[in-house]
Structure formats: C-alpha cells, structure tokens
Amino acid sequence: MKREDLDYNAAEFAPEEDNVFGRIAGRYDRLCDIFSFGIHRQWKSKMARAMAREQASFILDVASGTGDIPLRYLRQKKRNPDARLLVSDICPEMLEVAQGKLEGKDDGLRFKVLNAYDMASIEDNSVDLYSISFAMKICDRELVLKEAFRVLKPGGTFFCLEASQIPIRFIHNAYLAYMDWCMPIIGRLAAEGDASAYQYLLKGVHDFPNQRELAEEIRRYGFMDVSFESLTFGITALHRAVKPPFAGVGTP
C-alpha cells in the first residue's frame, strides 16, 4: 500500500479549528456509555490489565480524554506500585475532567496538556509504555506513530485501543448502518445539539483501517512484535507493539 493511497486522518479532525471536545467534556463519559451500551468499559479494562502486565516504570497515556484508561490502570497498579503515570490530552477541558477523577488517587500521577503530534517536553527514549485509546481515528496516525516511536525507550511498549472492523463484511456493514442511524440522534441529544462531535466520530469509524491494516502501519513506522486482539466481534481491537531494543529515535 502506497503512502499517497492512505488517509492518515480518518475523521479529518483539526483540534486547532474546532474545540468540540472542550465543549462536550462534561458529557463525554455519558456519550461513551450511550454509544457503546457501556461495553467500552470492558474494552478499557482489558487494555489496562494488559498494560499492567508490562511492569513499566514510566507510562505516558496520550489523548487521555476523561482519564478512563489511567483510572483502570490504577486499579491494577498493585502489580507495579512504583510506576509513574503521565496523563495527557490536547484539550484542557477534558484533562480537567480526568484530574477530577484521578487526582489524589496515586502519588505517581502527573497531568499535562500535550499534543500527540509534537510532545517536545517529553525526552527521546524516555517512556517505558505509551498508550492511546479511541483517539487514533480522529488523529493523523502517521504523526502519532512517529512521535510515539521517538519518546519510547528501546524495548518500550506501544498500546492502542481503537475502532476496527468486523471481519464478516455484511455484519460490519449492518453495524455501520446502525451507527449512521443512531449516532446522529443520540449524539445530538446527549451533546445538547453539538453536531460536530458525532460527525467526527462517525467519519472516523467509517474510514479507519481494519485490524491488519493498522498493524501494518504500526510495523511500517519501525515497531516490531506487532499484534492485535479483536474485541466484541471486531468492533474494536487492542494493538500492542514494541520499539526494537537497539533502535534510535527515528524509524528505520
């Protein structure tokens, strides 16, 4: 697959032009519960358990939103009590909600407004574990993966939980048709008429690559041992990859 054939920003979302997630930060958790019938909680718990098994010392959670992944990771932290966790998001309003959930729960927590495309305050080769959930579909994946590779230590682990594709095509098409019907209705009600929120999310779901295609993209940017697990028939997938032990900052 050629670079020019790929759309690296499935949702065509530009946060500097639309602060939609700032506007809906206080209602975002409710939106997630409604759209997924609460199943997103199981997916995020699955990711947090996988992260806890890595025994990482410094964890960077990118595009943390309202802090669901860090919250669930802390429930597993007895496996790695000395781990430090940096919770970050480009949207200050979302990060403020995350702080309300998490602050005071652990001495190793820090919060920082960061752009996943350019995290200049994070040193090269300094992060043991990088995690991102349900944000890749509204991001430029190329920029995210390059920056993730830069900040990870050689041998560090990358996790991504994201929308995917049900392998049986007609079932996936039926799922998309359902989303096309329900997301505008529920989204408009839950977001109090802010239509742009569900428009970005819906476009991202439609145009995001499938599990194998995303795994290949991750591999292309220098990662090794790339794997994925489909969840709930493939509606979402949990990807894991490793920065090669002898890698430098740039991709091969």
Provide keyphrases for this structure.
252 residues, alpha/beta, Rossmann fold, 40% helix, disordered N terminus
Describe this entry's structure for a reader.
Strands 3-2-1-4-5-7-6 form a seven-stranded mixed beta sheet, sandwiched between helices. The protein has a single domain, classed as Rossmann fold (3-Layer(aba) Sandwich). It contains nine helices and seven strands. Residues 1-6 have low confidence and may be disordered. The two termini are 18 Å apart. Strand 2 (84-89), helix 5 (92-102) and strand 3 form a beta-alpha-beta unit. It is of the alpha/beta class and 252 residues long. It is globular. Helix 2 packs antiparallel against helix 7 and helix 3 crosses helix 4.
What CATH calls the topology is Rossmann fold
Gyration radius from CA atoms, angstroms: 17 Å
Q: Could you give the distance between the termini?
A: 18 Å
Instruction: Give the low-pLDDT segments.
Output: 1-6
Itemize the secondary structure elements and their pairings.
Elements: H1 20-23, H2 28-36, H3 40-52, E1 58-62, H4 68-75, E2 84-89, H5 92-102, E3 109-113, E4 127-133, H6 141-151, E5 152-163, H7 169-190, H8 195-207, H9 211-220, E6 224-231, E7 236-242
Parallel strand pairs: 1-2, 1-4, 2-3, 4-5
Antiparallel strand pairs: 5-7, 6-7
Helix pairs in contact: 2-7, 3-4, 7-8
